[in-house]
């Protein structure tokens, strides 16, 4: 990656020697990624991130067919907002945070021209996993012409993506969620399925996404995905143990800690909790002072924390949702980090409840 | 001292932050996100948050954003709409200071271990001979904001700093220029932050409550015109009453509401003159002064953000606080805050809201 960021400046679409080097780097990256996803290299489209990938599919499918977009109310805004923008249909999730399949079936039955059904593989706030196989079954049966899209951005570090690509038509990935650079995304689009591009111009990515390639970013993305897969089993096991220790210890020490979905239904890197009797904005401030970087829900343009639409969708009591804390562990998290987080959390929560 | 500096993204709070840092305080900047809806008048816009953040970065301090939109709606916007519905004239900036900048932010700061909250308001805190803190007028009298801060009680004053209260606005701007702050030439915010300039009050209120047409009549009951929305009419208003031009100036002297029917009565200015007002929602910074139950407390009174002051006596009569003017005074619209200053007109001794019901 560094070579292409520092020394090799050529545009991969040129025809000269230097361009060919860059082109080869992209081709090889594409091959590596395709093989890890269990798909064909020609089905991989490089984008600027998960958001662009999601937008491409939602807008592109609706524009291509004039049909309706369908999603759940706990989706990432990168899906939810485009779907709302094209007046799509938003299906509720159940209390466990998974799309209500009965409601989905009902919507698909009543809507003759569904263009795309977008359901995230792993929720970005709660870590809740959706079984894409069951979603796929419902969609294939009741809306056979619809594209099944899955925002798999949060799934990439924790699970084999091949079983997902086997049952859906497109997925979005974001490089920085698996240790790659920020600003690079992947859109996998099954062969034979086409959507209107968002970007027109030089015709890169087989006319599906115009714009000069981010060569260094793409090379870094492939390298990160290769490494993520190589270490996945070990990381999943190690991080799961750390996550359990973190949540169990804090729960045992301060009490009043609620997990909105069972751990078994969530990825191991998600330590999402709702802290009773605490405002998360104050808690985040104290954690930040103690060098613990966490989040609550998602931030708005001003940088302020917004109340979580995901917890609202799951029917979590608004008072409890005010104490929502979204801690994420990753492949670099070490036991010492967990020790620090436990002590900062227990001290901060105790302090805030006393004040 | 650990100080939480409320940074709006304007020049005053930018310079205030720089002053605190220069004085050796441990400062964290905070911008409150208050209004979640559309706005084009500043205060809560993303570009103002950006200005605040960039100034904090330049000054080398941490900057955070607190989302108080729910509190703002509950304490400022909803009461603003309700006030118009029942025909009183609210002062949302005062309610924002009372509930957000002081109660909410001050409490949050205390919980987070800050010893004081600072703001960029033009006001000062002085101490009387016995050490009692008092909210005093700013050094720059033309920019004085003590009127909109009168709800600060003693505890809050003890934990509040106004770093630019002793400077003229010119000095503030000079300092901002000297420091190279991006906010140096930013214009002062003027309007109610949640009302857009484009749509104005009418569109804001019209989206929330039914606005009713009303007849405008003279004191003799003769029709004078019509107004589109009685909810927007204020006691003492002269313009926009739909009457013919020319003739003697006429002012709103009464707004009658009988069920669904509303009538605006206009008359000569003399009809607005009064000897007294009844005051509700009274705030004394530390307890009611004895004089108000005895001979009466002599005060100077200010009735609007940049209004003139006039002398009056405060006294409890018929169970309510009566403000008795020395000289006949224009009536103050119900809902407006009146702020009491000491006889030298230097510091705040209390304040309250003009009652809609006159008991005398």
Report what the structure shows.
The complex is a heterodimer of chains A (355) and B (360). Chain A is built from twelve helices and twelve strands. By secondary structure, chain A is an alpha/beta fold. Chain A folds into two domains: 2-227, 3-Layer(aba) Sandwich (Aspartate Aminotransferase, domain 2); 233-354, Aspartate Aminotransferase, domain 1 (Alpha-Beta Complex). In chain A, helix 4 links the parallel strand 2 and strand 3 (89-91). In chain A, helix 2 runs parallel beside helix 8, helix 5 runs parallel beside helix 6 (132-142) and helix 9 (280-289) packs across helix 12 (335-354). Chain B is an alpha/beta fold and 360 residues long. Chain B folds into three domains: 2-179, Rossmann fold; 212-267, no CATH class; 273-354, Elongation Factor Tu (Ef-tu), domain 3 (Beta Barrel). Chain B is 24% helix and 30% strand. Chain B has helices at residues 11-22, 46-59, 69-86, 92-111, 154-158, 169-179, 200-206, and strands spanning 2-6, 26-33, 62-67, 116-118, 123-127, 133-137, 160-161, 214-218, 223-227, 251-258, 261-267, 273-283, 297-302, 309-317, 320-330, 337-341, 348-354.
Keywords:
heterodimer; A: 355 residues; alpha/beta; Aspartate Aminotransferase, domain 2; Aspartate Aminotransferase, domain 1; three-stranded antiparallel sheet; 44% helix; B: 360 residues; Rossmann fold; Elongation Factor Tu (Ef-tu), domain 3; six-stranded antiparallel β-barrel; five-stranded parallel sheet
Name the poorly predicted regions of chain B.
Answer: none
Give the class-level CATH name of the largest domain in chain A. Answer: Alpha Beta
| Helical stretch tally of chain A | 12
What fold name stands as the CATH topology of the largest domain in chain B? Rossmann fold
One letter per element, helices H and strands E, the order of chain A comes to: HHEHEHEHEHEHEEHEEHEEHHEH
Low-confidence stretches of chain A: none
Task: Give the biggest sheet of chain A.
Answer: 7 strands, mixed
Q: Helical amount among residues of chain A, as a percent range?
A: 40-55%
Give me the count of strands of chain A.
12
């Amino acid at each position: 990656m560094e070579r292409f960021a520092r020394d090799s400046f050529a545009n991969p679409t040129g025809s000269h020697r230097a361009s060919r080097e860059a082109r080869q780097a992209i081709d090889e990256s594409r091959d590596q990624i395709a093989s890890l996803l269990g798909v064909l290299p020609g089905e991989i489209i490089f984008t600027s991130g998960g958001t662009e990938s999601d937008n491409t599919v939602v807008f592109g499918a609706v524009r291509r067919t004039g049909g309706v977009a369908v999603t759940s109310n706990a989706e990432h805004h990168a899906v939810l907002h485009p779907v709302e923008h094209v007046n799509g249909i938003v299906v509720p999730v159940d209390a466990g945070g998974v799309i209500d399949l009965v409601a989905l079936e009902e919507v698909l039955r009543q809507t003759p021209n569904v263009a795309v059904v977008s359901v995230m593989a792993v929720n970005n706030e709660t870590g809740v996993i959706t079984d894409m196989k069951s979603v796929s079954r419902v969609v294939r049966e009741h809306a056979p012409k619809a594209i099944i899209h899955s925002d798999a951005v949060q799934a990439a570090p924790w699970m084999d993506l091949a079983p997902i690509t086997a049952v859906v038509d497109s997925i979005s990935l974001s490089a920085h969620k698996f240790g790659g650079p920020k600003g690079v995304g992947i859109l996998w689009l099954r062969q034979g399925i086409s959507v209107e591009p968002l970007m027109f111009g030089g015709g890169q990515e087989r006319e599906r996404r115009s714009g000069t390639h981010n060569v260094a970013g793409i090379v870094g993305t492939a390298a990160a995905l290769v490494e993520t897969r190589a270490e996945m089993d070990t990381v999943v096991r190690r991080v799961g143990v750390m996550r359990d220790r973190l949540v169990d210890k804090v729960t045992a020490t301060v009490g009043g800690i609620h997990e909105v979905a069972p751990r078994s239904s969530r990825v191991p890197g998600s330590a999402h909790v709702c802290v009773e009797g605490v405002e998360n904005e104050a808690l985040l401030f104290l954690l930040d002072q103690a060098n613990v970087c966490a989040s609550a829900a998602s931030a708005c343009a001003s940088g302020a924390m917004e109340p979580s639409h995901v917890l609202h969708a799951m029917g979590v009591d608004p008072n409890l949702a005010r104490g929502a804390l979204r801690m994420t562990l990753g492949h670099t998290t070490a036991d010492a980090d967990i020790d620090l987080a436990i002590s900062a959390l227990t001290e901060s929560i105790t302090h805030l409840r006393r004040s | 001292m650990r100080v939480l500096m409320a940074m709006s993204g304007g020049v005053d709070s930018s310079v205030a932050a720089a002053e605190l840092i220069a004085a050796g305080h441990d400062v964290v900047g905070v911008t409150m996100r208050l209004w979640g809806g559309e706005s084009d008048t500043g205060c809560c816009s993303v570009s103002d948050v950006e200005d605040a953040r960039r100034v904090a970065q330049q000054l080398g301090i941490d900057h955070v954003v607190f989302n108080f939109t729910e509190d703002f709606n509950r304490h400022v916007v909803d009461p603003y709409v309700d006030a118009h519905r029942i025909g009183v004239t609210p002062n949302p900036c005062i309610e924002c200071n009372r509930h957000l900048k002081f109660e909410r932010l001050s409490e949050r700061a205390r919980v987070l271990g800050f010893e004081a909250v600072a703001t960029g308001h033009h006001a000062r805190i002085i101490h009387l001979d016995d050490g009692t803190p008092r909210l005093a007028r700013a050094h720059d009298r033309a920019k004085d904001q003590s009127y909109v801060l009168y709800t600060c009680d003693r505890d809050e004053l003890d934990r509040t700093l106004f770093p630019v209260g002793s400077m003229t606005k010119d000095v503030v701007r000079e300092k901002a220029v000297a420091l190279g702050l991006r906010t140096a030439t930013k214009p002062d915010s003027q309007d109610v932050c949640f009302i857009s300039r484009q749509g104005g009050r009418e569109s804001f209120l019209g989206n929330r409550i039914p606005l009713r047409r009303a007849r405008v009549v003279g004191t003799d009951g003769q029709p004078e015109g019509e107004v589109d929305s009685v909810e927007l009419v204020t006691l003492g208003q002269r313009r926009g009453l739909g009457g013919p031009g020319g003739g003697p100036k006429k002012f709103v002297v009464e707004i009658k509401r009988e069920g669904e029917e509303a009538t605006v009565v206009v008359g000569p200015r003399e009809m607005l003159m009064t000897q007294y007002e009844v005051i509700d929602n009274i705030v004394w910074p530390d307890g009611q002064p004895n004089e108000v139950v005895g001979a009466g407390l002599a005060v100077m009174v200010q009735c609007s953000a940049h209004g003139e002051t006039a002398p009056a006596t405060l006294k409890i009569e018929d169970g309510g606080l009566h403000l008795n003017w020395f000289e006949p005074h224009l009536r103050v619209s119900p809902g407006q805050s009146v702020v009491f200053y000491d006889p030298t007109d230097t510091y705040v001794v209390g304040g309250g809201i003009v009652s809609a019901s006159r008991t005398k």
